Amino acid sequence: MKTKNSGIAIRAVSAAVPPEIVENISYIGKYDKRKVNMQLKVTGIKNRHVASDGREGKDFCLQAARKLIRELGIAKDEIKVLVFVSQTITMVTPSTAFWIHNELGLGTDSVAFDINLGCSGFVEGLSIMASLLEGQKPGTKGILLNGDTLSKYVDENDFATCMMFGDGGTATLVERKEGYDFCCLHNTQSAGYDKLIIQNPESKLYMDGMHVFNFTINDVVTQIQELVDECGEPADYYLLHQAQQYIVRNIMELCALEEGKVLTAYENYGNVSGASIPLTICENKEKFLSDRDYRVLVSGFGVGLSYASAFITMEKPIVFPIEM
User: Fold this and answer.
1) Cys staple from 306: which of 27, 83, 120, 272, with CB 3.0 to 4.6 Å?
2) Which residues, at least 6 apart from 286, have a Cβ–Cβ distance to it below 8 Å?
3) pTM over 0.85
């Protein structure tokens, strides 16, 4: 499915992660040294931030959103859309977005809701934001929140996943701007829904790593190539979901993406689900100067199996350092 929207741009990005760092090399002893070193070499994930203090994705998103509003001096009645994307919520009803909306003190002339998506959630969230803001007057703003605490669902006795996932939350300021187009491709491979799954709140995460890998180097690669062919736009940077080094590098090579333009953050944060792309932007903040625009290709893929890729403009972006 292809969607196109006009008049949408990313204006600012902020991120927050828990201060506790788990060094993956510390798994030597629990697992064979050679086995751990091989995993480190393949995944490229050295460290992860984990929320051992009980905080959730919503708390890190709230911290990141407050940073945006405070530092940019945004009037709260300017924010008309608040979307919270997560797969690790604890509130059954209402949507967690209402709690965040209240904590931020946003106005009644606005919409707020949750989306239950994982690794594709940033791109899908941008698409929903684009649709909601398209009919509004220029300058109308929305905040896209992506946050998860997947570490609490990881089985420390499952070597395939115990060194992969980190926690955190991000806030992305999206604005209605004339002259900027948003082109997005959406796909679903639901036959693989059970290949990356948490069955219930008491369950641990299960991942069929080989199935997920084959999905990325086939379906996701095809989607990115199709997006580039259809939209035909050069990108300043390529921002891929930070699943792990082996997957990112395979996509980069199969799609012939210029290495210097593919930004990463997995080394120090691991896989942080839907927050991984905006977190990568913040981790590479020195590459985004506020005196020019950047055209970026974003691609999120994972649980569902859901995948979405898009071209979007970052208009003279303000990118904040990652908070702890």
Assistant:
1) 120
2) none
3) yes
